[in-house]
Write a structure and sequence with these properties.
151 residues; alpha+beta; 6-stranded antiparallel sheet; 8 strands
């Protein structure tokens, strides 16, 4: 999603597809270190080979976090990440998969004189176009004339 303009410039129904990002083994190892999640499905090749996935997979939260990094965010426009609804991890992301974020603005809600809430249906898809994560996200965006939007 592109959070690069004031709230008033968003239109319900607008769509965006991000650039891609390939998930690497290093991403998984670093995420485990940061999060403390060393579950063997992510970290132990022999364990993971005996699961229905047949190999190690990325943490779901790693995929979600990496996807957030694919958003375009202009400083001063994003005031806060407000929340996530209906989050579903639909398919595994494997080492070497490339993810993209496909977004559609679903709702715009005024939040006073300084901000508005942009509600976005976000699908994270892999290089085959398969949905791996499906969620509705809410982002608090600066309104025109807001001092923090001038940054």
């Amino acid at each position: 999603m592109r959070f690069d303009r004031p709230f008033e410039q968003y239109v319900a129904g607008e769509r965006h597809r991000s650039r891609g990002r390939t998930i690497t083994e290093a991403d998984i190892v670093q995420f485990a270190g940061v999060s403390g999640d060393f579950y063997p499905l992510h970290m132990d090749r022999e364990y993971a080979e005996r699961t229905p996935f047949g190999e190690r997979i990325a943490h779901g939260m790693l995929t979600l976090s990496a996807a957030t990094g694919l958003w375009t965010m202009k400083p001063g426009m994003v005031l806060a990440f407000y929340g996530i609804d209906s989050l579903r991890f639909v398919r595994p992301v494997k080492i070497g998969d490339t993810i993209y974020v496909e977004s559609e603005v679903k709702r715009l809600t005024e939040r006073g004189e300084t901000a508005g809430l942009v509600t976005v249906h976000q699908r994270i898809v892999n290089q085959r176009g398969e949905t791996v994560v499906d969620a509705v996200v809410h982002v608090l965006v600066a309104r025109e004339g807001n001092a923090s939007a001038r940054g």
